[in-house]
């Protein structure tokens, strides 16, 4: 249930962000301005008085001008402050109010008791429901408030006998918004459940396949290596192949470690555990060199098994490259896990690496880049005095926090 709630919250955030990004693009803003200007100029069309009554074209243009200014202002606020800004949200609500009041102003100034202009209220409610399905209280209050003000204005102006139109239209807009928003919310929540189920089935299939591959490898290659180790021990008795048995046993242990690491339950799920595992795996590669492995301070999150395995393999390749090809005497490895994903930085004091060399790299660096790309990530170089390679791995699913705020840095020098 917690996973479903987290998935729903993430999807709601993504839907809201996509809607804001679409509405606050230059293309959409210019389209909105053009459509409103064209609508105002429609009052010049022949027999337009059947719809617009006594509304004059110049007055229609004057009415829409403040709303168009709000559109441009909100576009600037969105690009400058982002959708999470309180100022942007307040301005966005003000723009919505302006748009709705424009429709009511057209209706009031047309002098018509019933007009097709009343449908603008319903169309606006549909637009709000599709783009803001989880903001029901805000828009319900806006619809009720503006229609209530309109009714009061009509009564004050002596048109109390005609208040049936704004009341019925307000109710129609309100019901339309509630129904469309509810349908949109149900669609989003169903999509969240589908995403969660799909990830669960995928994870189960991956785990099953890993177990099958592990069994196959150990049953096939493992048996061959075990037989080779036995033959080597027999040959060592004749001093003909000194050290062959040790090498075969080492290969067998490495194979077992690979199979073990491929199991999700064998990989650490916390940043602390992953840092400790990196320390153990990287230390043998840095004999005679200073190695520091730590984690940057930040919120604690779980690390998915697939990402943990990728970080382990990439870290080994980057450190091995720094030792073998970079001539590094000191290597610093830093791990960061935040809401955006997982980042692994490997810095050393070696001879350095240019962007062109990184792009054309083969061997270990190519493998590291391929593993990063398979997880939707990137391998890039940071500018600076030392070689600094950074791997970013985006993580789709939000992970619950684990205990601990910061991983203690582990250092060793041989």
Please render the helix and strand layout as text.
Blueprint: H1 2-23, H2 26-41, H3 49-52, H4 57-81, H5 86-110, H6 119-131, H7 136-156, H8 164-236, H9 244-261, H10 271-282, E1 290-295, H11 305-324, E2 330-338, E3 341-348, H12 355-359, H13 364-374, E4 378-381, E5 387-394, E6 410-413
Parallel strand pairs: 1-2
Antiparallel strand pairs: 1-6, 2-3, 3-5, 4-5
Structural account:
With 414 residues, the protein is α+β, with helices and mostly antiparallel strands. The chain has 2 domains: 2-197, no CATH class; 268-413, 2-Layer Sandwich (Heat Shock Protein 90). Helix content is 64%, strand content 9%. The chain is built from 13 helices and 6 strands. The protein has helices at 2-23, 26-41, 49-52, 57-81, 86-110, 119-131, 136-156, 164-236, 244-261, 271-282, 305-324, 355-359, 364-374, and strands spanning 290-295, 330-338, 341-348, 378-381, 387-394, 410-413. It has a 6-stranded mixed sheet with strand order 4-5-3-2-1-6. The chain is elongated, with a radius of gyration of 32 Å. The chain starts with a helix and ends with a strand. Residues 397-414 have low confidence and may be disordered.
Question: Which short descriptors sum up this protein?
Answer:
414 residues; alpha+beta; Heat Shock Protein 90; six-stranded mixed sheet; elongated; disordered C terminus
The main sheet comes to:
6 strands, mixed
Strand content: 5-15%
Distance N terminus to C terminus?
49 Å
Number of DSSP-assigned strands: 6
Count up the domains: 2
Low-confidence stretches: 397-414
Mean pLDDT: 77
Shape: elongated
Order of helices and strands: HHHHHHHHHHEHEEHHEEE
